[in-house]
Design brief:
Its main location: cytoplasm. InterPro entries: DAP_epimerase_AS, DAP_epimerase_DapF. Catalyzes the stereoinversion of LL-2,6-diaminopimelate (L,L-DAP) to meso-diaminopimelate (meso-DAP), a precursor of L-lysine and an essential component of the bacterial peptidoglycan. 16% of the residues lie in helices and 41% in strands. It has an 18-stranded mixed β-sheet that branches. The longest helix has 13 residues. The structure holds 2,6-diaminopimelic acid (API).
Length: 280
């Protein structure tokens, strides 16, 4: 099986072209195997690029633990780059089908290769979100966790197709993500688990964020997460509709448009290498 390793700001996935080759029989097991950073290729998960009847391609995304997610913002930019650069569809505006519907992506192409992609990530889903809500029963695991005290945690929940919990704090560098992340991911309030983002606001249009992803743990960036941070900032009157988000792997530009209520995300998409994964 041919694969391509790609990343958006260090949020890295193994991409498999299922337009031109047979899809894997058990994608969940394959996701766990390829994602392993010691015994596999090493990635935050697996993304299948499949044929679509409604769009130029369809994306299916699996976390490192094999669970399937509805959406992946950094992933969908890379899918667009792959679809364009490999000639599956060479237009500068592509449509990609995802678990949250068909998204439109605009590619910045240089020397025949897509380098940056602007994605219309659709409207945030807020009906079930209690904004802000509190999470009882999740005490800080470390008394020195300054930004997490006092409990209960105040979280803002936003869905971009997949679920996100946004928590504001004074210093994201102090958050013990490996300890707090899994507690919040598995909190009883979130029966389908959740992606968790700690956010430090610098100004109404600039934040720094760190992410614990459902099913994958700490990642260097999360596109849908950054979109949810943009929306949460407006809902809680902390930031404006245009936002520059600094993530460990780099920056994303975000805008929650007043015109169409959609969130627009712009960022890079990078190919690292291709290879062959042995199949039985
Ligand atoms: N890194 C992805 C999100 C993955 C979300 C996944 N961990 C989930 O279970 O929803 C992004 O760039 O949007």
């Amino acid at each position: 099986m041919q694969f391509t390793k790609m990343h958006g700001l260090g949020n890295d996935y193994v991409y498999v072209d299922c337009v031109r080759q047979k899809p894997p029989a058990d994608p969940a097991a394959l996701a766990r195997a390829v994602s392993d950073r010691h015994f596999g290729i090493g990635s935050d998960g697996l993304i299948l690029i499949c044929p679509s009847e409604k769009a130029d391609a369809r994306m299916r995304m699996f976390n490192a633990d094999g669970s399937e997610s509805e959406m992946c913002g950094n992933g969908v930019r890379c899918v667009a780059k792959f679809v364009h650069d490999r000639g599956i569809a060479t237009k500068p505006r592509l449509k990609i089908e995802t678990g949250r519907g068909v998204l439109t992506l605009d590619l910045e192409v240089r020397a025949g290769k897509a380098e940056r992609v602007r994605v219309n990530m659709g409207e945030p889903i807020l009906e079930s979100a209690k904004i802000p809500t509190t999470l009882p029963g999740a005490p800080p695991v470390n008394a020195k966790l300054v930004c997490a005290a006092p409990t209960p945690w105040e979280v803002t929940c936003v869905s971009m197709g997949n679920p996100h919990a946004v928590i504001y704090c004074d210093d994201v560098a102090k958050v013990e993500l490996e300890q707090v992340g899994p507690k919040l991911e598995h909190a009883p309030e979130f029966p389908r688990r959740i992606n968790v983002h700690f956010v430090q606001v610098h100004s109404p249009n600039e934040v720094t964020m760190r992410t614990w992803e459902r099913g994958s743990g700490v990642t260097l960036a999360c596109g849908t997460g950054a979109c949810s941070v943009c929306v949460a900032g407006v809902l809680t009157h902390r930031t404006g509709r245009k936002l520059l988000a600094h993530l460990p792997g780099g920056d994303l530009e975000l805008e929650w448009s007043e015109t169409d209520n959609c969130v627009y995300m712009t960022g890079p998409a990078t190919e690292v290498f291709t290879g062959e994964w042995p199949t039985a």
